[in-house]
Amino acid sequence: MLFDESQLMTVKGMQTPFYYYDMNLLEATLKAASEASQKRDFHVHYAVKANFNDRVLQKIQSHGFGADCVSGNEILKSLEQGFPANKITFAGVGKSDKEIQIALEHDIFTFNVESVQELEVINELAALQGKVGNVALRINPNIDAKTHKYITTGLDENKFGIPAKDLSRAIKVLETAENLNFVGLHFHIGSQITDLNVFKNLCLKVNQWKNWFEEKGLSIKVLNVGGGLGVDYNFPDENPIVDFERYFEIFDQFLERRENQEVHFELGRALVAQSGNLVSKTLYTKSGAQKNFLILDVGMTELLRPALYQAYHKIEKLEKNPVESERIKYDIVGPICESSDAFGRNVELPEVKRGDLLVIRSAGAYGEVMASTYNLREEIRYVYSDEI
Ligand SMILES: *Cc1c(COP(=O)(O)O)cnc(C)c1O
């Protein structure tokens, strides 16, 4: 059970919907990740876009993780929450001049550069500031992450990374650019990757590219293999913490690194997903011609993942029924005027009545951060486990 008796009393009096962050689970997850990475001398940057709730960021920062940002504002936010600039990476296919200037001003760890044109722009803007920008080249390794097509990023057809055919040109630019400091290579092939073989394949590709660059006389200090490690959305109680040991061990085993080469990771989802839950109230129950609907007070405006990429979240009733009843199949939907505003079809639950609380599990990553005010919805609320 997510809440004990006294917490449940508090929760029943709270205005719904709201995100509930389990700070103990977050702590335990971060501890496991930092232990497994540190003993291999790996560097982990937390992908801020997964969840930038203040206290979540503070906790992550307090464990010594760096930050992986995809916008100028994420960089500023990370600095504000105490992440040191020299642990901040900056990725994204569309970095604006203003965002690049912010990153240069703060001397971040690296730009993960996604095109030859971007290299030229960073060089120009750095020259104007009298700075030298640290750059890693994001390479698109053409690996199938075997995940949903909307969260695959490392295939030739995706917009991310420098296409292989442009890499020689990128090296030419690096050779003459006075305000760029080449530090290494960056890869990120997708998200919610649960087949760990995919990461082994990534290692083999990284080794190949590393050799290719070294043969061309470039010295590589940083190998950044990105993030993408998946979590168990089906069984959040059985697997609340990802097996970080197994994950990092793959890279330890298959990545060829020289003594002076650093290995960097950018984990988002795996660090925060299971620590977030979305609590909601049943507004109406309705039996259609073929379906039983539960209409919640939470919608795609608070949790977009199901509507955006057909993501599955486990949904549970918070309280037991006084008398055990048979389980009923429900389509669980939100109040937003879109047919894609649904959280689950044919979900089996004990009978649910108007007013019953439901909880949508594993919502800590790409949840609160994607909330919108479409339909002029109220701003999303959240509460931390140590507050109730
Ligand atoms: C989103 C993103 C990540 C984190 O992905 P997860 O699947 O949440 O681990 C890492 N690196 C880059 C460049 C990203 O865009």
The CATH topology of the largest domain is what? TIM Barrel
Proper CATH architecture of the largest domain: Alpha-Beta Barrel
CATH class of the largest domain: Alpha Beta
Distance between the termini: 15 Å
Count all strands and give the number.
16
- Write the CATH homologous superfamily of the largest domain: Alanine racemase
Overall pLDDT, averaged?
95
Uncertain regions spanning at least 5 consecutive residues: none
Approximate strand percentage: 15-25%
Radius of gyration: 22 Å
What would your notes on this structure say?
The chain has 388 residues and is α/β, with parallel strands linked by helices. It folds into two domains: 5-18 and 274-387, Lyase, Ornithine Decarboxylase, Chain A, domain 1, CATH 2.40.37; 23-272, Alanine racemase (TIM Barrel, Alpha-Beta Barrel). It has helices at 5-12, 23-38, 54-62, 72-80, 97-105, 116-129, 167-176, 197-215, 244-254, 269-272, 305-309; strands spanning 18-21, 43-47, 66-69, 88-90, 110-113, 133-138, 180-186, 222-224, 262-267, 276-287, 292-296, 315-317, 327-333, 342-350, 357-360, 381-384. Strands 1, 10, 11, 12, 13, 14, 15 and 16 form an eight-stranded mixed sheet that branches. An eight-stranded parallel β-barrel has the order 2-3-4-5-6-7-8-9, surrounded by four helices. Helix 2 runs parallel beside helix 9 (244-254) and helix 8 runs parallel beside helix 9. The longest helix has 19 residues, at 197-215. The chain is elongated, with a radius of gyration of 22 Å. The structure holds pyridoxal-5'-phosphate.
